[in-house]
Records
---
Amino acid sequence: MSILLLLLAPGLIGLYWLIRLQICLSRARYLIDAYGLNRKKLQKLKCKELRVLRESIETLKNSNNPSGLEVLIQPYR
């Protein structure tokens, strides 16, 4: 049983990191497509920072604050 675990562990860890990478790339792709942000400027952000940026954008969008939304998005265009 332990030999099977040793053989499957690297594959499972690799699969986990691949899924995390795809989620992060999906977040960046959404921001690029929906708000016209610059891909190179978003590449500097980490995945957690992308999540916070998207949540901030959604909060401002739901509160009908277009000026705040523009101020938040402007550095990434």
---
Amino acid sequence: MKQYIPILTLLFVQIVHGQKSDLAIFEHLIGKTWIAEGNWEDGSKFKQESTFEYALNKQIVIARSKGYVNQEQTRYGLRNHGIRKFDPVSKGVKFWEFDVFGSLTEGTMSIRGKDIFYHYSYNGSLITDHWEYVDDTTYNFIVGRYVDEKWEQVYLKTQFKAQHHYHNFLKKED
């Protein structure tokens, strides 16, 4: 039995290390508030503040976002609560995003370098959100139809900028 302990320890360390690296793309997003403003293709306003944190021993990433919480875009507050998790079956990252309107958006993620792509169905169309890495405090953010590594249609293009640590994020809503 003693001869198996080093092997089991090494195997355990490799498993834990592998699980952490599956969500490693979020490492520099953690502990910051990411803020973006812009306009959708139809002219309506877009404003969002997002934070990311690890949970369950880094097995998942929790995303919380503030945004407009009514259709008229006159009230701003906590809008979305999301989960990102490595799926051992597909060997990819999946996500679930719950919003104040009672909707659930779920899909898959792909990673290219430091770029993050969210792929999901919305109103019958396949949509992609692209967090295009610029530097550790800036991402270009593009939402649209992305097919064969090119944009067929862009609905929103703006930037997320990192702000202060997110400890003030859950304070009084604007």
